[in-house]
Amino acid sequence: MFYEKLKWNKKYLNINYKKPSPLLDFIPNSNGKALDLGGGLGQNSEILLSKGYNVTLIDISDIAISKIKNPKIFKICLDLDNYTIEPNKFDVILKLKYFNFNLLKQIPKALKENGYFVFETIDKYQIDKDYFFELFKNFDIIHFNQKPFQFVGVKRGCN
Ligand SMILES: C[S@@+](CC[C@H](N)C(=O)[O-])C[C@H]1O[C@@H](n2cnc3c(N)ncnc32)[C@H](O)[C@@H]1O
To answer: Structural domain tally of the chain?
Structure first.
């Protein structure tokens, strides 16, 4: 969406750095594939790279993406509103402070078995805990916090 892109580009004009999420401490080292949805300036992608992952970051803001200097992060600038994630492809998916129900519903299928989902939403986006845990019923919970809503889980079996 044009205005969404404009809004985020405006925000990123004056922001060059954000702190990586401490939730990434739960993710083991691996040479697997990771996807950072709404990844912004790429600080969380950087941590996954340092853990050995092959990382793809997607974001609507070309300004944010232009500020990511590490050539090892595969960057895609697009609107995720109607995006379909390839099933059974990723070992880690990050969805940090970027809320999108359409994508949330796809995560269980998009992850490989034993894949990690790292999720945090900012308070203005309320999420129903029962709905969330029904969606992620085949996941082992590594970390959960209600406010802010945070979840780190590992997919077990099929979904
Ligand atoms: C609050 S920021 C979070 C960025 C990063 N995940 C972090 O934790 O720092 C939300 C991000 O989602 C991106 N975003 C918002 N709407 C989007 C959309 N429709 N498609 C793709 N990215 C979007 C913004 O550009 C922004 O980088």
So the answer is: 1
Mean pLDDT of 69-83: 97
91 by DSSP, 3-state: which? strand
Report which of 23, 33, 4 is spatially closest to residue 114, judged by C-alpha positions: 33
Choose the residue to mutate in 5, 59, 65 for probing ligand 1, maximizing ligand atoms within 8 Å of C-beta: 59
* Residue 129: inside a domain: yes
Domain with 43, as residue range(s), is 30-155
Domain assignment present for residue 20? The answer is no
Q: What percent of the chain has pLDDT over 70?
A: 99
pLDDT tens profile 5-31:
999 999 999 999 999 999 999 999 999
DSSP 100: -
- With a 6 A CB cut-off, is 96 part of the ligand 1 pocket? yes
Cis peptide bond N-terminal to 148, omega within 30: yes
Residue 44: in which H helix or E strand, if any?
helix 43-50
Answer yes or no: is 22 within a domain: no
